[in-house]
């Protein structure tokens, strides 16, 4: 869609159990770092794209520096701790954050644009607790991951190009059983530890 540079941050390796839902990887990728595998696939799709890799978890300072160097952050992580860390760094650097998640037959999507009037991811995450189950343990219907990922990509392009209406201040939830989408307003938490000082 015209995005010429990406930075992929992942310290994990491709496992066989990933292949049915993480479509950038193939059987030949098993054992590779996920970022390396993703770069191979994306470069085959578009050799002109500049794809940077970071194959380790980042401290707040390093992550803040990386966020500052980019126009937007897409959160594809699988735990609240990492999501809240990304959220804090996006607020600090005043960068938009597109967050997506999927488990079982359900997906969710939100966009956060840091400002004094907008809620942040932590305003949302304080409403629920850390998931103790992984996708392998709880299960996830493979296409749901792809649906959420495609929606994140669409949100990213909309925000970068200032086209259409992003999901700012909203949580969109997908129910794969009924094939229904529902959208909720995310209230700003005035005592939020991440964004209340904006």
How would you describe this structure to a colleague?
The chain has helices spanning 34-45, 60-68, 80-93, 121-125, 135-138, 142-161; strands at residues 5-9, 50-54, 73-75, 97-103, 106-112, 170-175, 180-185. The chain is an alpha/beta fold. The protein has two domains: 1-57, no CATH class; 75-198, Rossmann fold. Strand 4 and strand 5 (106-112) form a beta hairpin. It is globular. It starts with a strand and ends in a 13-residue tail after the last strand.
Topology:
Blueprint: E1 5-9, H1 34-45, E2 50-54, H2 60-68, E3 73-75, H3 80-93, E4 97-103, E5 106-112, H4 121-125, H5 135-138, H6 142-161, E6 170-175, E7 180-185
Parallel strand pairs: 1-2, 3-4
Antiparallel strand pairs: 4-5, 5-6, 6-7
Helix pairs in contact: 2-3
Mean pLDDT: 91
Q: What name does the CATH topology of the largest domain carry? A: Rossmann fold
The CA-CA distance between the termini, in Å, is 32 Å
Sheet with most strands: strand arrangement: 3-4-5-6-7
| Computed structural class | alpha/beta
Number of domains: 2
Number of helices: 6
Q: From the structure provided, what is the oligomeric state, counting identical versus distinct chains?
A: single chain
Largest sheet: 5 strands, mixed
| Proportion of residues in β-strands | 15-25%
Order of helices and strands: EHEHEHEEHHHEE
CATH superfamily of the largest domain: NAD(P)-binding Rossmann-like Domain
Spatial extent as radius of gyration: 17 Å
CATH first level of the largest domain: Alpha Beta
Low-confidence stretches: none
What portion of residues is helical? 25-40%
Q: What is the architecture of the largest domain at the second tier of CATH?
A: 3-Layer(aba) Sandwich
Quick one: how many beta strands? 7
User: Given the C-alpha coordinates, what overall shape results?
Assistant: globular
């Amino acid at each position: 869609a015209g995005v010429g540079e990406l930075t992929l941050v992942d310290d994990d390796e491709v496992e066989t159990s990933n292949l049915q839902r993480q479509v950038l990887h193939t059987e030949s990728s098993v054992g590779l770092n996920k970022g390396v595998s993703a770069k191979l696939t994306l470069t085959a799709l578009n050799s002109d794209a500049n794809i940077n890799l970071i194959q380790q978890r980042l401290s707040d300072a390093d992550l803040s520096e990386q966020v500052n160097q980019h126009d937007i952050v897409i959160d594809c992580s699988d735990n609240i701790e990492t999501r809240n860390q990304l959220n804090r760094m996006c607020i600090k650097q005043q960068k938009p954050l597109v967050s997506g998640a999927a488990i079982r037959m359900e997906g969710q999507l939100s966009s956060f644009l840091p400002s004094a009037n907008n809620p942040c991811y932590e305003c949302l995450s304080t409403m629920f607790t850390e998931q103790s189950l992984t996708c392998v343990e709880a299960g996830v219907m493979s296409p749901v991951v792809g649906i959420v990922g495609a929606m994140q990509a669409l949100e990213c392009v909309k925000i970068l190009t200032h086209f259409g209406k992003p999901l700012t201040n909203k949580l969109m939830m997908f129910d794969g059983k009924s094939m229904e989408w529902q959208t909720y307003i995310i209230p700003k938490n005035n005592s939020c530890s991440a964004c209340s000082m904006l």
